[in-house]
Amino acid sequence: MLFLLLIVAATEGQDFDGDSVYYTAIPKTVSVKPPPKQIFTDTSRHDNSIHYFFNVQVGSLIGCNDCSLGKEVTFTSSTLHGVTIGRKLRTGIGAGFDSYYSWQTLPLFGSVSWDLIGTKNTQAIYLQLQYGWSILTWRKELPWDYGSTNVEGGRMVCPQIGYRMKYHDVKISLSVGTKFQRVYTYFETPTYYYLDDGTVMEGSPNKTTIKESMNRLMFALTVGWK
């Protein structure tokens, strides 16, 4: 009798279903997404070295001197050689070729640029200023040309803002800016006067200087190394 009571007590104390399987929770794997790549973030915080760079720029000049005749679209190109100082500053010297409707010039200039956002090791948004003097290589003959004509180039100023992309040591930039170019034309015409006896004498020539300024909107593509 005691044996039967022990069996009944043991059975009532266990809640067991022979057909059930105990569930063990499987820990959920949490997928952590990497943070988005920061294209303007430079991890080299102490890179103050100086490196050589060069680039080639081509683009278009859009504008007019006599806008009643419509806008002119002409060509510009240049090459620049210089050094990067630290992570943001670039400076150098360059030479180029600019084509206008009535002129062609070879500008020789100095250049300085500063990365507003980003550095030389990342993508960057930058400001650049070129300043120099142009050699005049060709001038279209104009209807009012007369006498002896001499021409020469003048001051060139070109501020730009651009976006630079980096792939290893290759840099590709898109920029927009303005280009100011001054040129001079010198006319010299003889003068004559008559004596009482009808003799014709040549006097001092008349000298005229025409100063012309070109202002153009510039769009450019630049490809360079370092």
Walk me through the structure.
This protein is mainly beta. The chain has a domain at 48-138 and 157-179 and 215-225: Porin (Beta Barrel), CATH 2.40.160. It contains 1 helix and 8 strands. It has an 8-stranded antiparallel barrel. A hairpin with a 5-residue loop joins strand 7 (170-194) and strand 8. The N and C termini lie far apart (98 Å).
Residue share in helices?
under 10%
Annotation field: number of helices:
1
The CATH class of the domain at 48-138 and 157-179 and 215-225 turns out to be Mainly Beta
Category by helix and strand content: mainly beta
Biggest sheet features: 8 strands, antiparallel, barrel
Mean pLDDT, nearest integer? 83
The poorly predicted ranges are none
Strand content: over 45%
| Strands side by side in the biggest sheet | 1-2-3-4-5-6-7-8
What Rg do the Cα atoms give? 38 Å
User: What order do the SSEs take from the amino end to the carboxyl end, as H and E?
Assistant: HEEEEEEEE
Give the overall shape.
Answer: elongated
Separation of the first and last Cα atoms: 98 Å
According to DSSP, the number of beta strands is 8
The assigned CATH architecture of the domain at 48-138 and 157-179 and 215-225 is: Beta Barrel
